[in-house]
Specification:
Blueprint (H helix, E strand, L loop, with lengths): L7 H6 L13 E3 L3 E6 L4 E6 L10 H16 L5 E6 L10 H5 L30 E5 L2 E3 L1 H8 L2 E5 L3 E3 L13 H9 L1 H10 L3 E2 H7 L4 E3 L4 H13 L3 H16 L4 H13 L2 H13 L20
Parallel strand pairs: 3-4, 4-5, 5-7, 6-8, 7-10
Antiparallel strand pairs: 1-2, 2-3, 8-9
Helix pairs in contact: 4-5, 5-6, 9-10
């Protein structure tokens, strides 16, 4: 069963779901989020399944996403997650039709210092493992914020990203105003935040909002291949470097403090992974871009 330490309102509104991340079987949480573990690749695929509303997120879906990411982060068999939406769209943001039926106060949304559940679900979590967004179609408003939560964004040529909530008076409260300036710079971030204009795939790549652009219809496969590439590396070292990079951008008090943190966290990895890696290299492994003796290039080639 899912761990019972979820916050009260989350637990009261969710059915219990068997924790089978390592089984490789699909299951549906609350009917709107599907999780599949590719056990042979150590990749977890998390899918929003609300195609009739372009995968807009309502409160039950937000809670399901939160739970899926918490369980991914705790599962030792899953090294990298891929987030995507079914039916040709990533996510059109928060479900405004559902919100319009409320009085604006009954959705259980609490500030970050009270709860780590965001309006879109997992956007406040400090995950210890990488997440890749596989973006097709619309990734707008809160959907853009879900994509920004991810470490990397692979987008296909159909992708449209933007702060579309601007036209409806809905603020960015899932980290959009925090993450976007760090990713693409303040000037470009303000251009998107103030105007709410659409950004296509090629512009997203140019400004650093996207990391890869792939042909339409291939984004999920490309993101999974990229995730599998990352999943095969020595994990403690990779996660330590990832944590140090995030700390240097969002948390550090100074350059010197960031360097010290990088050193003291990195030095812990040397005995466990660096020395074995160096010995493998000395024996000829990993030369010329090879990832192992039996594998030449990463399958994604991204």
């Amino acid at each position: 069963m899912f761990r019972r330490r979820l916050i009260g309102y989350l637990a009261s509104s969710m059915s219990r779901i068997p924790r089978q991340f390592s089984s490789g079987r699909n299951y549906t949480a609350i009917g709107t989020v599907k999780v599949e573990v590719l056990g042979d690749r150590n990749v977890c695929v998390i899918e929003i399944v609300r195609p009739e509303v372009r995968n807009a997120v309502d409160p039950p879906t937000a809670k399901a996403l939160y739970t899926a990411f918490r369980e991914f982060d705790e599962d030792q068999n899953c090294h990298v997650a891929v987030l995507h939406g079914t039916g040709g769209n990533f996510c059109a943001g928060y479900d405004l039709k559902a919100f319009s039926k409320s009085d604006g106060t009954e959705n259980g949304i609490e500030p970050p210092n009270v709860s780590d559940v965001g309006p879109m679900g997992p956007t406040r979590l400090k995950l210890s493992k990488p997440v890749i967004a596989a973006v097709s179609g619309y990734a707008v408003a809160g959907g853009l914020e879900l994509a920004l939560m991810c470490d990397l964004r692979v987008v296909d040529e159909s992708a449209i990203m933007g702060v579309f909530c601007r036209r409806f008076g809905v603020p960015l409260i899932d980290g959009g105003t925090v993450r976007l300036p760090h990713l693409i710079g303040l000037s470009r971030a303000l251009d998107l935040i103030l105007t709410g204009r659409p950004v296509d795939a090629q512009e997203a790549l140019t400004i650093g909002l996207a990391n890869r652009v792939v042909p339409t219809g291939t984004v999920l496969e490309a993101a999974i291949d990229l995730a599998a590439d990352i999943a095969q590396f020595p994990q403690r070292c990779m996660r330590t470097d990832r944590t140090s990079a995030l700390h240097s951008v969002y948390t550090t008090d100074s350059f010197q403090e960031a360097l010290a943190r990088e050193f003291y966290n990195g030095i812990k990895v040397i005995q466990e992974e660096s020395l074995p890696g160096a010995r493998s290299f000395a024996k000829g492994a990993g030369r010329h871009g090879k990832f192992s003796d039996s594998k030449t290039d990463p399958p994604s080639k991204l």
